[in-house]
Amino acid sequence: MTTNSTITINGQPVAFTVGETIFEIAARVGKTIPALCYDPRLDAFGGCRLCVVRVEGMRAPVASCTTKATDGMVVETATAQIESLRKTLLEMVASENRQIDVDPLRGYASQELTTLVDRYAARTGRFAGAYSGHSKTDDPNPFILRDYDLCISCYRCVRVCAEQEGDYAISVMNRGFHTQITTEFDNPLKESACTFCGQCVQTCPTGALGDKKAMRFANEEIGD
Ligand code: FES
Questions:
Q1: Is the CB of 116 under 6 A from ligand 1?
Q2: For the chain, which domains are there?
Q3: Please, what's the b/e burial string for 24-34 (b: 16 or more CB within 10 A of its CB; e: otherwise)?
Q4: Share of the chain above pLDDT 90, in %
């Protein structure tokens, strides 16, 4: 349903359709908001908080990917406070992940975290401490690398498997620093409902999931 509703983003009035989120409207007019757990094919999750924005009249920043626009809303996407908050969030992630630079051949979205960490100069060990996610690089399947030490718990892999493929092959176990992406009974992928479609690899923003075939092929090409 189209209405005459208008939102103002960074000073620019923009008409929107009821039901659209701030994030979607901003993207539509080229005001890209940083994000990590967002994938346009999936239901918004609101987990990473990178997409926070300031909304006039609201005391705290809101996640733009889960906040629907309302008529007359006035939004700022990159105030000094918001940018500082994003940097701190990225420093927390960067401190926990043992590796930020990953092989781009791991997957289509694998450079998303690296790009944001560089953009915000967030490469620090400021919050060094406990780590979540433990790699299962010994999983014997020939297609998908499971390097969960690089996982940031955005659940894009779990969500794409369920929402796009309807396979529900992977899920989440435990919480906090014990969070772990897993399969039913924590079995290898081959013993799960996984069809090796590769969607999880292609949506992973950190390279925690990798395309073993592409990486193998590249290594053979350069004679490794
Ligand atoms: S992109 Fe909105 S919370 Fe992650």
A1: no
A2: 2-78 (3.10.20.740), 97-221 (3.30.70.20)
A3: bbbbeeebebb
A4: 81
